């Protein structure tokens, strides 16, 4: 993108304001992306993996290069639960992770998948990343579980706030309400995130305002994927009870209305939001738009004041026990 002319003409011995090309980068690639809006098959991880593969195959058939699934798609989001149940049963890296990697490689897509991860005896709300060659890239653990989620899920730390460099661009993710944490977002912007994935469980219309704000603030594409669920998608009572509302629900009652959406760095809605049912919501991402957005506003570049406001991120694992071993030679 040309920013200044090759010569500097003057008027009255003063420089002209440089003519600036505010357009997008014509050499930047276009990425076809899909957010999946669908329900988990509760208490049945193998069946949910089968469903995920069907949806992934369908998205790949549309030419999608990047597919983003909702929060806790594998393992199930405990919506309305009284938490008297067991949900997460898997540990990354395990056989389910291997299958997800194989699916990404089979359909030649980059995959961002929301799961419930078990590490030892602690559950985490996690996003797993895979490339189109079938390689597991890494994970992000939700830093701050919301409300009663804290009764079940552990807290992530600064060691799992990745932004992965891929042929499609720099991809990262934040989960549900941690997207409202400005310091977390700033850390991701500093890592250069270009495709910002936001798996969520929030189907309220106000969520759209948050997603638009992040796209404008970060100068990035925002891909938010949520589940669409009816009461009949969950096990019947007493196996699963929606605390406080169960008696008002019918099998067809919508308990999560979706709202999955794709937004450009300039704040334009490219696809969605969808509140109608299960769907694949796709858009072509012109990565050249990022240059235009960043020229106007770069929150960790020319529109920052680090001498006044700065952020320090502790990006090492925070283990509860550290062993300090000392070896001595005899």
Beta fraction? 15-25%
One letter per element, helices H and strands E, the order comes to: EEEHEHEEEEEHEHEEEEEEH
Order the strands across the largest sheet as they lie in space.
Answer: 7-6-5-4-3-16
CATH C-level class is Alpha Beta
CATH topology: Nitrilase/N-carbamoyl-D-aminoacid amidohydrolase
The total beta strand count reads 16
Protein name: 3-cyanoalanine hydratase
Family: Belongs to the carbon-nitrogen hydrolase superfamily. Nitrilase family.
Organism: Lotus japonicus
GO molecular function, one term: nitrile hydratase activity
Characterise the protein shown here:
By secondary structure, the protein is α/β, with parallel strands linked by helices. The chain has one domain: Carbon-nitrogen hydrolase (Nitrilase/N-carbamoyl-D-aminoacid amidohydrolase, 4-Layer Sandwich). It contains five helices and 16 strands. The strands form four sheets. It has a six-stranded mixed β-sheet, with helices on one face. A six-stranded mixed β-sheet has the order 8-9-10-11-14-15, covered by helices on one side. Helix 1 (45-61) runs parallel beside helix 2 (95-107). It is globular and about 55 Å long. The model is unreliable at 1-11, 15-20 and 82-90 (pLDDT under 50).
């Amino acid at each position: 993108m040309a920013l200044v002319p090759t010569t500097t003409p003057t008027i009255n011995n003063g420089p002209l304001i440089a003519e600036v090309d505010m357009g997008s980068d014509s050499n930047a690639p276009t990425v076809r992306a899909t957010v999946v809006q669908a329900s988990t098959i509760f208490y049945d991880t193998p069946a949910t993996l089968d469903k995920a593969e069907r949806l992934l195959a369908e998205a790949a058939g549309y030419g999608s290069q990047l597919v983003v699934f909702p929060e806790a798609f594998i393992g199930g989001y405990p919506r309305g639960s009284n938490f008297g149940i067991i949900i997460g049963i898997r540990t990354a890296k395990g056989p389910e992770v291997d299958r997800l990697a194989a699916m990404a490689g089979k359909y030649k897509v980059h995959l961002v998948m929301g799961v419930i991860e078990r590490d030892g005896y602690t559950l985490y709300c996690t996003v797993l990343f895979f490339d189109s060659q079938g390689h597991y890239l890494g994970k992000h653990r939700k830093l701050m579980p919301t409300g009663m989620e804290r009764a079940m899920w552990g807290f992530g730390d600064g060691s799992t706030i990745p932004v992965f460099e891929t042929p499609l661009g720099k991809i990262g993710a934040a989960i549900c309400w941690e997207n409202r944490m400005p310091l977390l977002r700033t850390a991701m912007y500093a890592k250069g995130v270009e495709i910002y994935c936001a798996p969520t469980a929030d189907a309220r219309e106000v969520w759209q305002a948050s997603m638009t704000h992040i796209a404008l603030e970060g100068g990035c594409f925002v891909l938010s994927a949520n589940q669409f669920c009816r009461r009949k998608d969950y096990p019947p009572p007493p196996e699963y009870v929606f605390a406080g509302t169960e008696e008002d629900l019918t099998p067809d009652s919508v308990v999560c209305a979706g709202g999955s959406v794709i937004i450009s760095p300039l704040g334009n809605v490219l696809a969605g939001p969808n509140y109608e049912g299960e769907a694949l919501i796709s858009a072509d991402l012109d990565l050249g738009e990022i240059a235009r957005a960043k020229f106007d506003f770069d929150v960790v570049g020319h529109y920052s004041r680090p001498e006044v406001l700065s952020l320090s991120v502790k990006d090492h694992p925070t283990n509860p026990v550290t062993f300090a071993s000392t070896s001595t030679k005899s």
